[in-house]
Structure formats: structure tokens, C-alpha cells
User: Which sequence fits this backbone?
């Protein structure tokens, strides 16, 4: 099938014509250059990422010698399809051109650019200018007639007759010149000529650039992290998968759609850590779930106290019924008791004294963890075994993995593993927990991770937030790095949360949920505003769940559960909040107030968020909105509807007053409602 | 021959080891990534440009998973050599690395990057940290001894024994631990281990990037444009090459080293233009030299009234003796009388009425010019014929061509022609006269033009000059676009010159000569401050030499000849002014005063220029110098020596007062002389 949707240019699919770049045939080399194409990650080495329904805006520098009219098109298709779709590129000035296409299916797409110089359009422009000053000559029309005749030669079907008839009309047989010129400039002829342009002397960009297409949750997801062993309904008991099941309703009501469980495997006994990371556990202490592997098994086994594989499958299905996916932790490391230590000694580094090298960050030692040796002579076996682990859990119904410390395992390993998994199961998502240097985080995202943790937890001031989220939403990273914002994790209790009280938790939740299409919290510590650190100046929790079972008073009156539920409902109901490349910051004349908006691609849904960053004091200020960019009129008032409080305000003009008291609500999440007129002249707000 | 200059890393040339990128052998893929390499023009499609003795600063993003110590080197060589030279890359932070190399020969160079993770350095860092807190164990030293033993296995010659001896020293046979650690951290061992590092698990950047190396005049040149037919010593006579010869001393005394002549070929008769571009010449009028070709011949013929080929050769040699090169105009277009019009009708476009298509920019017509059809079916013959034209003049001793309107001929043609010419004669230089859109100008420079005209003529304000020359000297363009600044040309008499009087000419000359390592003037119109336009609002000269012979009163007392000579001497004597990537602007608190400095690469020569941009009024202001960047001390005074007036000032600190009256001198061209102390404690200024 030959398609040419959304274009005026063509029946012939461009794929049928070869690129003329570098050809050495009878015809002269193409005069057109296409360069500076964007997005193009590392010269096309990596794909950009989209979810079904999202657009890719492609631009490039396209130019040629001289002053001939240039026509350029964006070509795009599902990779496995044969034929290109075409969209005309629009000139932006300074030889830059741009067009967009929408990815319609969850399958890899490719795109490229094609351009050519159009003699007919060049001739037409000249004729127009000459006609404006009354300097058209008969021969000018003959030149045009020749071009139309040539197009007839290229065309097929009814177009041949139409073009011949146009050519005839241009030949001046005693006709009045002005009428001839009018005919020559007819829009219908222009469109016909464009459809049958001679693209043989054009050029196709040398690369076909790729788009990796994910399902929607890759872009828009709301995560809840919970230690299953703390899920028991009464204190003092080791939680089970059954207990987790009974928590699902509450999690669904709060509006989460991914439930992430720290490792669920048997925990090693050797060098087991005690409460508050004591170097050695006392008898009966449960240890860290990240010390994976014991006599009962390794990465494909389940901690006996949590339940059976059947229990786990039940949990997965029960969650599914509530729209929740279970995300598992994938931590490629072993406790000294992991079966692999004996079965595959070469998968670990051994020391000259015959002992196995434990994890260390000198002078710190982590003797309860053996890192895997990805450079082992048996690396292939190790890589395959880790892939088998992922396959095993996919077999149990898991489609989301949170990967622990991917930045301490080789890039090539992840690139290979993710590609292998996605070849078999394109719906599997990977979240990279790489709290490390920016280029390393970006590299992991480029080579396949679906989502990534970010520096959000440590970006607190307006300047920090604005700079960081401008980079993430508008820089090149926005093409491949999908941020997942976590105000807290079991490893991260920030100073801001330690000292800001309950309002700080509300502020950080509002920011995470509106700045990021994907965010998550480590709860119930979060909804209960747990903020006691193990030591001053540190970010570890006191009595951290990493080393012990906690019982949480979930029904505490101060729980943020209702607030979280409200925020997450706003996210679900407003498509503007379900994407990231649409973020724009707005000026407020108070450093403690930050304002930003997001609009859905069709422009019908706009959310304006204002947050008070100071958890201790009320702040007010004047905010300045770019009315035109928000499709608001400077003449007409507009309504802002605070979806948190249900309050509505009528605003007009770009400058408006905002006031936020953290003791009441630290944020406005406004939906903008534009005033419009119907044909009946009733006012209402859209 | 194996070379490893300027590096501590190695006897083995890296070229002897294969890149591990993508290898599928027994060893695991490399963990290192090299990306974001700069300079890299369009993914390596085009070379960067240098002249002999210049440096190339190369940087790249280099990183790996984990926290191992990374070592990276810049590899560079003359393309035709077999072995690489190496320079260690230095980390700049944020995983960016940089190093420089100098091109030593006028031959294409190539460069690339290589990096690897170094287990010994990683181990050494760990040992150091452990030793700082007294936590070294015997086994730590054994691990190090193993690494040294492995290096001995890789090494050859005396290094084997040295490494074995080090390994032995690390094995703790009853030795005191602290002493062992001291030995392990010995710098000599570190250097030895670096030289015998295991680079097998490293990675070589996939591309070898190219440097095109020119002779010095490509970078530093001073051009004088002159119509030979106006060179006669008395009014009313058609000038000759002999007349040009008698002008050479004067041109040499002014300090020019390129004498550019507009086309010297027979001029067409058909549609010949008259004085002041009258559509039709009267009998006896000389016509435009750009209407190339008549019965006497075309692009390889000489206008009979200028002289013979022998006369031309004499002129070339006479100029050479004075250090001046003759630059010819290469205008790939024909008058209707050019022999090619009859010999090769297919090299032109014909119209349906059988006439040849003349040049036009509708509704304007240029009937005295036939453009060549580079897309003709006989394009190969045409391209070859044009190459033959260039070869012909090279045969007459010409090594510099000023190419007329290259932007109206295909990119591919120029890329091919320049490559062909430079394959045979690497010393030939091409100046692109492409006054067109930025990307087109940059493209021509990328594909081979040695130098390029610029927008300088129209950049008059401080903001305009600062923005444009920052782009040219520090942007990517600085790697391939060599600016040649012309305050005027026969086509360009700017408003600034029209209305600024003699001071305007001085200002623009001072700017051109100090902002640009290459600049040129169209004289004698320039030195005589010729500023009468043909029409108000236009940039054409009244009584332009393009259409008639002019007799110039060269000995006029107001001639800028002495000023020009002084400025050009300053340029010759100060290497800082002979390059472009060293330009830095400095703040002055007066919008009419612009200040900037250039320093030679070795830092011994610094020129600070201050120009009054207002040709009508004196201006003064406080200038702020970045003392540290200029290697000046904030504590000690420094001398600024105005090379235009020979005045010397003693300044101190960053802020100093400047005053410039355009009626006296519109510019300071200061040489900075730093105060230094010798061992004898005499003060003097370097």
C-alpha cells in the first residue's frame, strides 16, 4: 500500500525513489544539503522515546546554493512497514525547517527528511514578481508550459491529461497575456505540480532515525513503594503477600497505579545488617532485602515468610483488577549465601587469599553484599542468568522493574538485557535507580531504561527547580530521559522533609505530581510525614525499614492520604499533567513562589500550578502569565479553578495576585478555563 | 617508527591495538563510553582547519559505569603516518575531558580518543583511602601485587624486571605494613603501571576526525583589491599589468601581502553595461570585468589592453619579490560573447524561443551575464573545464583565488573542485565571496573554502560586533570558517563610510585589522576615503570602477596610506593579531567604545584594542580588564604601549580610563607589557 497522508505532495511514496546523496550517475549531484537534524541522539546511535499518540517534532537545516524554491518533507513510518508517510516541512527562517508526526502504534518508528529544489515554484515566483511590475513576456509562459509538460511525463493516470491541458492553456495562442498569467498562477496548477514534482534531483537525509514507542504508563505513572514485610495488619508480625493484597484498595483509592516492592527474595545470613544498619544483626533480626540469596534460593526464589509463588501471582492479579501493576526490584548483586556464590565462583571477584571480594567504597566495606563480576571470563553465562531472572518474573506476570543501582553495572549489559526483554515483551518497563553523575544517568536512559530517578529530591529553591526541569523538559534529554520524581525513598529523607513538617511533605508531593508525569512516594513513611533521621546531617531514616519491620499507623488523622488521593485524581483527570515536554515556568515576584503550566497537545486542557516553597510561612506575590501562549485573551477575563480546594477566581490580564499559606494548602493547582462565546452569545467557560 | 610523545602512557602505539567497540570476543564488551567529541563537524563529514603550528583542542564526554579510575588519551598523527602520538586527556569535571595537540606539518592530520578503566589506579586510590584511616589489610597489598605481576606479563624489555621487583616488594613477607603501603603508593610504580596499562578492555572512539592544514597565509593575510585598468600613472589611459607592477612598492609599503585583481579577461560586448550601470554602454565604454569572454577568448584569456600572459607572469614574479601574492578573481559565468556559448550550448540554459537564459532576479534582468548550468546533461564536461581554468592560472604562478558568488553554484561542485586543486597544489587558497545566509556561508567554508567574506561591513554597533565576532571566534564556526574582513568592496560602500568621513574609514580599518587576522580593503577608494554613493540609500559607488576607468590622486595629503602602513606593521610585528580564536571582548561603560584583546598562544604577546565607534564625537569611559586572564597582577602596575601613537601609560588594577577623539585617532592599539622581576631585581617590562 502506498500512503501519503497529511501532505499535498504525493502519490508516489518516496521510499520508491533512491537517495541521490552521493550518486554518480548521469545527472549532476544534488544541490540540496540536509544537516543539523533534531532529534538525532548521538548521530542516530540511540532512538528517541515516545508513547502511543505522542508527536515527534523534527527539524533540520535544509539549504542549497542559489535562490531556487526549496520543498522539504518529513518521512515517517512504522519501522516494519514498507512505505513512508509524508508531512510537509515548514520553514522557520534561517534555513531551519520543521514538521511533526504522531506515533500511532506501539511499535518502533523511523523518520528522515527529504528535500528538493522545485523549478516550477521558482518559475512561478519569478512570474508573479514580473507580473506585479508588468514585465511578463510570452517566452516566460512558454518556459512554464515546458515545466508542466515535463510533469505530465512523470505523472500517471488522470493527472497526465490534467497537466497536458494546463500546459496547453499556458501556450499563448493569441490569448491575452494577463489572463494567461492568471492561469499560470492558479493554485490548482500549483498543487498538481507539487504532487508531480521531480524529486529525482533532491536529496534524502542519509540516516533513518528511530523512535522507540512504549505503552502509556511509560510516560504517565504514579508509584507507591511499600515493604511487603511491613504490610501486616498488626504490629509484631512479618507481613505477607496476602497482607499486601489487603492494602491494595487503600493504594488504589490514593490513586497509585504502580506498586513497587523492594526485593522479595530470601535474605542472606552472613554479615547480615542489624537495626539502623548495625554492622551485625542480632539473632532474629530480618536483615536488608537487598542482601539477596540464602539457602532457600536466590533471585528467582521468594522469601519464605512472604508467601509462595502462587501467593505472589494472586497479588499481581488482585492489583491488576484495581488498575495497579506490581513492580519488582531488580538488584544484580548477591549475599554471601546466594546459591550462585558456590555454583558460579567465577561470577564474583576473588582475592589472592581465596576470599570473595565484597562490595566496598574504600574505606567503607559492605561485607553482606558480593558484587557480580561483569567482566568475568564467564560473563556470557552471568548475563544470560540475569536475563533468565527477569524472564522468570515476567512469567509470573510482572511487567515493571525498578532496577537497583544500574550505574554500577556495565552500560552494554543493560543495553543488551533491555533489548532482549523488549524483543519478547514490548510492554516491559524499566525504572533506573541511578543516583549518579548526569552523563551516566542520561546514558542509561539512552540505552534503554524507560524511566529514571532524578535529582528532584535535592532541588528545593525556585532557581534550582526551574533550571533542572527546564533542562529535563526542553533540553535534548526530553527526547529520551523520562523523569520519575520521588520526594523520598527508603534511602532519602531530605533535609527539607526533616525540618519542614507536614507542609513540607505536601509541598514536595504537589511539586512531584505536577512537575512530573511520573512520580512516586515511599509510603507509608510519606503519607505519615515520617521525618526522623538516623543521624543529624544524614538522609537515612531512623529505624529504617531497610533493616527492620515497621508497623505504621495508617489511619492517623494527620495522614496525607486524602491530599494524595485528591492530587492523583487531578492528575488522572487532566491530560496536561500526563506529559513532560509541555512544561513552562512563569514569573512570580516572590522567590518562595514557583509557578508553571502544562497544556495538553490539543490545547483544551491547561493546568497552572503555583507552589509555596517555604513550609513555614505564608507568601504572596504577583504572577505574570504569557497570555498568548496560553491562548488567553488580554481583553477578556478568564477563570482559574483550583482543583485542590474547588475555589474559582475570575482573573484578567497577565498579572494576578496569588497567596499561599502552607498551614492551609501549599499549592494551587488551577485548571484554566477560557471564556468563549457560542453562536447563541451565551458566555461560558471552556 | 613508534612514537609516544608528550605522554606518560606508552611505548606501544595505540594503533597496534584494535578498538574494542562492538567486539564480540571472549572478553566482555568495554565499559567505557566516548561521546560528544568536539570538534567534530557534522559527525566527522568535514575536517577542521588549522595552519602549521596551530593547536587543536579536543574534548569529549568519557565515562563508564561504577567508580573505577578512568584514563583517557588523545591520539593524533599526520594522516599518512602509521603511528599515533598520544597526549593525556585532563578531566574538566562532569565527565568532560580535554587535551590539545599542535599540527607540525602542512599535511592532513587525524585525531581520535581512547580511554580505559585502570584497575591499578582504582586499587591505588582505595589503598590510599584505607591507609588514611589505618584500615589496610595484608590481602589489599596482595591484590596490588597481582596487578603489578599482570603488567609485567604485558610489558617487554627492562620493564619486566622492574615490575617483577615491585610486585615482590608488595608481597608482605614479614614486612612492616606501613612501609609496604608507602612502596605501593610510590609515584614511580604509578608511572610504570600507566605505561603498561591493560588497554585491551578500553575503547577507541569510532571515528578518526580530520584536520585540514594550510600554510600560514590561510590564517593571516592582508589583502588589497585594485582594478588593474585604473592603475595607469596618468588619467585617461587604460591601465596595464606594467602599471600594476609600478604600484607594487607602494602596496608593499602599506603592508599588504595579497593583491587581488578583479577579472582580467576579455569583456563581452553584447548588452555591455555603461557608466554607473547604465543598461547599455555607449561606444568606447569599457564594461564590467565580470562580463567575462569575448572574441579574444574566455576565462583563460587576458584582456588585450592589460597585456600579455608574459606581462602577467612578470607581475606575479615582481609581486613575489615584495612578499605579495597576486589573487585572481574566479567568476564562473559568461558574457554572451564568451566562446563557450557557441562551443558548448548545453552548458547554458536555453529558453523555448531558442534564446539563452540570462541571469535574472525577477523582475531584474542581467542580460550581459549568462549563468552556467551546473545541472546540464554535460555537467561533467563543464566542471572539468572550470577546473582547467583554475589549473591554467596556477600554471601562471597564481596560488590565491577570490571566488565570485560561490553561493550561486552547487556545493558539490566546489567541494570537488577545491579537493582536486589541493590534491595537486596544497598551497592554493580560495576566498569565498558569498554574501548570503549564514548556513550557506558556513557550508561553503566547511566544504573547502580557505577564507570567507563576512557580514563585518554591516556590523557597526558594539553589540553587533561583539555578538558576531564572539560567534566567529568562539563558536563551532571558528573551527572551519576563516573570516576575511572587508570594510569596503567595489559593491559595498556602507552607510557608515558614506556619512562618517575620514574618521569612519580609520575606525573601520582599525576594527578590521585587529578583529580579523585576515582583512582587506578595496583601494585606492579606501585610502582616499571615497564615499560618494550612486544613489541615496544604496551601497554602490558613484562612478564605480566596475563600469569605468578611474584615475586616483594617490598622493593626496589626506590619504590614509601612512595610517594603513602603521596598522599593518603592527599586525606583522604582533603574533597576537595573526590569529582569530584568541579574541576576547572587555567591558567599557560607554556604548561607543569597544575593547577587546588577543594574546599569542605562548602568552608573550598581548594586544588590547579600544575603538571609538562614533566617527563624529570624542568618547571616554572606564574599561574593565580581566587581569588574571591576561596574566596581569592586581598588585603590580603594568604598561600599555599604544603602537599607533607610541604613547605609553602605566596602569594598575582592572579599571582604567580611556579617551578617544576620532579627529585625532579613533583607536588605541595597545601592547600590554607586564612588569616582571629578574633575579637581579631590576624592574622591566616584558
Assistant:
Amino acid at each position: 500500500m502506498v500512503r501519503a497522508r497529511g501532505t499535498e505532495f504525493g502519490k508516489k511514496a518516496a521510499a520508491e525513489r533512491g537517495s541521490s546523496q552521493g550518486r554518480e550517475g548521469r545527472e549532476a549531484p544534488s544541490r540540496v544539503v540536509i544537516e543539523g537534524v533534531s532529534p538525532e541522539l548521538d548521530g542516530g546511535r540511540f532512538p528517541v522515546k515516545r508513547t502511543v499518540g505522542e508527536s515527534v517534532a523534527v527539524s533540520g537545516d535544509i539549504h542549497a546554493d542559489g535562490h531556487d524554491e526549496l520543498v522539504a518533507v518529513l518521512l515517517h513510518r512504522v519501522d516494519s512497514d514498507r512505505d513512508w508517510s509524508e508531512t510537509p516541512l515548514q520553514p522557520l527562517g534561517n534555513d531551519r525547517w520543521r514538521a511533526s508526526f504522531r506515533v500511532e502504534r506501539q511499535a518502533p518508528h523511523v523518520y528522515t527528511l527529504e528535500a528538493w529544489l522545485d523549478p516550477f515554484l521558482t518559475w512561478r515566483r519569478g512570474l508573479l514578481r514580473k507580473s506585479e511590475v508588468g514585465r511578463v513576456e510570452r517566452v516566460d509562459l512558454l518556459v512554464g508550459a515546458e515545466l508542466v509538460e515535463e510533469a505530465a511525463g512523470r505523472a500517471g493516470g488522470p493527472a497526465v491529461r490534467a497537466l497536458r491541458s494546463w500546459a496547453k492553456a499556458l501556450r499563448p495562442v493569441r490569448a491575452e497575456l494577463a489572463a494567461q498569467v492568471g492561469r499560470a498562477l492558479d493554485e490548482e496548477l500549483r498543487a498538481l505540480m507539487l504532487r508531480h514534482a521531480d524529486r529525482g534531483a533532491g536529496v534524502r537525509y542519509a540516516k533513518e532515525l528511530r523512535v522507540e514507542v512504549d505503552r502509556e504508563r511509560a510516560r504517565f505513572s504514579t508509584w507507591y513503594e511499600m515493604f511487603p514485610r511491613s504490610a501486616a495488619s498488626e504490629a509484631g508480625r512479618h507481613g505477607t503477600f496476602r497482607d499486601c493484597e489487603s492494602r491494595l484498595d487503600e493504594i488504589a483509592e490514593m490513586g497509585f497505579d504502580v506498586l513497587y516492592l523492594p526485593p522479595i527474595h530470601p535474605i542472606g545470613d552472613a554479615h547480615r545488617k542489624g537495626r539502623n544498619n548495625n554492622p551485625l544483626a542480632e539473632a532474629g533480626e530480618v536483615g536488608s532485602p537487598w542482601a539477596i540469596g540464602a539457602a532457600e534460593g536466590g533471585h528467582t526464589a521468594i522469601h519464605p515468610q512472604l508467601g509462595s509463588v502462587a501467593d505472589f501471582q494472586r497479588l499481581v492479579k488482585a492489583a491488576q483488577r484495581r488498575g495497579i501493576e506490581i513492580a519488582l526490584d531488580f538488584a544484580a548483586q548477591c549475599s554471601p549465601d546466594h546459591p550462585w556464590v558456590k555454583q558460579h565462583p567465577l561470577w564474583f571477584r576473588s582475592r589472592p587469599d581465596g576470599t570473595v571480594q565484597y562490595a566496598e567504597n574504600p574505606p567503607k566495606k559492605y561485607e553482606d553484599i558480593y558484587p557480580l563480576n561483569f567482566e568475568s571470563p564467564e560473563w556470557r553465562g552471568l548475563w544470560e542468568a540475569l536475563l533468565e531472572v527477569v524472564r522468570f518474573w515476567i512469567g509470573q506476570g510482572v511487567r515493571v522493574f525498578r532496577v537497583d543501582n544500574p550505574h554500577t553495572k556495565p552500560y552494554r549489559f543493560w543495553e543488551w538485557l533491555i533489548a532482549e526483554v523488549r524483543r519478547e515483551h514490548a510492554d516491559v518497563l524499566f525504572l533506573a535507580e541511578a543516583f549518579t553523575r548526569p552523563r551516566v544517568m542520561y546514558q542509561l536512559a539512552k540505552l534503554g531504561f524507560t524511566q529514571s530517578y532524578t535529582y528532584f529530591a535535592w532541588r528545593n529553591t525556585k532557581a534550582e527547580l526551574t533550571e533542572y526541569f527546564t533542562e529535563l523538559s526542553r533540553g535534548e534529554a526530553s527526547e529520551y530521559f523520562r523523569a520519575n520524581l520521588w520526594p523520598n525513598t527508603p534511602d532519602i529523607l531530605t533535609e527539607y522533609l526533616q525540618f519542614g513538617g507536614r507542609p513540607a511533605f505536601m509541598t514536595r508531593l504537589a511539586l512531584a505530581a505536577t512537575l512530573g508525569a511520573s512520580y512516586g512516594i515511599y509510603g507509608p513513611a510519606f503519607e505519615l510525614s515520617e521525618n526522623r533521621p538516623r543521624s543529624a546531617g544524614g538522609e537515612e531514616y531512623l529505624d529504617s525499614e531497610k533493616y527492620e519491620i515497621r508497623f505504621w499507623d495508617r489511619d492517623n488523622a494527620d495522614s496525607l492520604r486524602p491530599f494524595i488521593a485528591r492530587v492523583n485524581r487531578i492528575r488522572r483527570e487532566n491530560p496536561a499533567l500526563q506529559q513532560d515536554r509541555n512544561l513552562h515556568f512563569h514569573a512570580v515576584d516572590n522567590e518562595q513562589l514557583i509557578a508553571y503550566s502544562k497544556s495538553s497537545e490539543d490545547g483544551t486542557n491547561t493546568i497552572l500550578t503555583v507552589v509555596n516553597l517555604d513550609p513555614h510561612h505564608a507568601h504572596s506575590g504577583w504572577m505574570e502569565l504569557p497570555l498568548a501562549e496560553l491562548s488567553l485573551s488580554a481583553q477578556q477575563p478568564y477563570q482559574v479553578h483550583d482543583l485542590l480546594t474547588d475555589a474559582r477566581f475570575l482573573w484578567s490580564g497577565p498579572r494576578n495576585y496569588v497567596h499561599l499559606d502552607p498551614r492551609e494548602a501549599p499549592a494551587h493547582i488551577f485548571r484554566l478555563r477560557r471564556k468563549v462565546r457560542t453562536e447563541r452569545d451565551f458566555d461560558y467557560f471552556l
